[in-house]
């Protein structure tokens, strides 16, 4: 266990509170006009999946658990969950759907992700920052709409809704940012 200040906590970190481990789902540093800055954290208890919110002063010390962080390749999804393989040892691990969460729309066969494991069980996943997806449907361009004026909604092959520039149509491959689901550019392939 390592002690760190609360303001340094990030999504995917694992903390120890009262002998129980929690994985951080979101962390936000709040600086009010008056008073002490605080770190607001939403966490999930690893043992039973219970979600908890906690608030610490940004300078408070928090116990951060040491987890194994390694790259894994996504293989497939079935009734047991999502299956990943460690590229060097070919060791496979099944990850439960509640760990993947809304990130399921980013997963593509062969995709390399960072899995955080504790005592052999996956507790958190980190997706690549940018992924390539194909547009399956978009709304038609409104006449007189300029390229810089606005974006239009589009649906990707994985079921993700994104906003794209007017010149992007169905069948176009684009790159999106997984942190906020925003359009980055056209894919160069």
UniProtKB/TrEMBL annotation:
For this protein, the record's PANTHER family field holds: ELONGATION FACTOR P, TRANSLATION ELONGATION FACTOR KOW-LIKE DOMAIN-CONTAINING PROTEIN
Which residues are in coiled coils?
none
Looking up SMART domains in the UniProt record yields: EFP (SM01185), Elong-fact-P_C (SM00841)
Family per similarity comment:
Belongs to the elongation factor P family.
**GO CC terms for this protein?**
cytosol
Biological role stated in the UniProt entry: Involved in peptide bond synthesis. Stimulates efficient translation and peptide-bond synthesis on native or reconstituted 70S ribosomes in vitro. Probably functions indirectly by altering the affinity of the ribosome for aminoacyl-tRNA, thus increasing their reactivity as acceptors for peptidyl transferase.
Pathway given for this chain reads: Protein biosynthesis; polypeptide chain elongation
Localization per record: Cytoplasm
> Which protein, by its recorded name, is this?
Elongation factor P
